[in-house]
Amino acid sequence: ELLGNAGCNMAVVPSTRYAHEGEQISFWALAQRAQLLGELLVGYQMRNSIDKTVLNPPQKDKEFIWDRYDLAIIRGEVKVSRAQTDTVRNTVRGFVTLEQRTAIKDLGRDNFMSGGGMRGSMGYTSEGSFSTGLQEQGG
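RE: above sequence
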């Protein structure tokens, strides 16, 4: 609750609060993750730099790797429970897993379409896990 009677404060947090190391993600997607914690993402700055903080960046939809940046946020004085934090972390992990599965699926499809020597199918196994099912073609 940013405008509640308890007030709010501005904070600088590491980008790993909302993104995994090496994850390519847009400012907009980071802002959505921050919102899940009741926080408002307002800008970023290169970590350990004297450069100006970029507030309200113009290209919010451009994907970027944020490992070397800190993020400027506004947050209320609301306490977030451990369970809520775990829920957000699990949600982030779910998004990353989905993105990885999509990338594997796209890679397999592209490889198959280009005749790259792979045969098989991708999907969920009867046990419920995801499998690429790709095998090298015998010569």
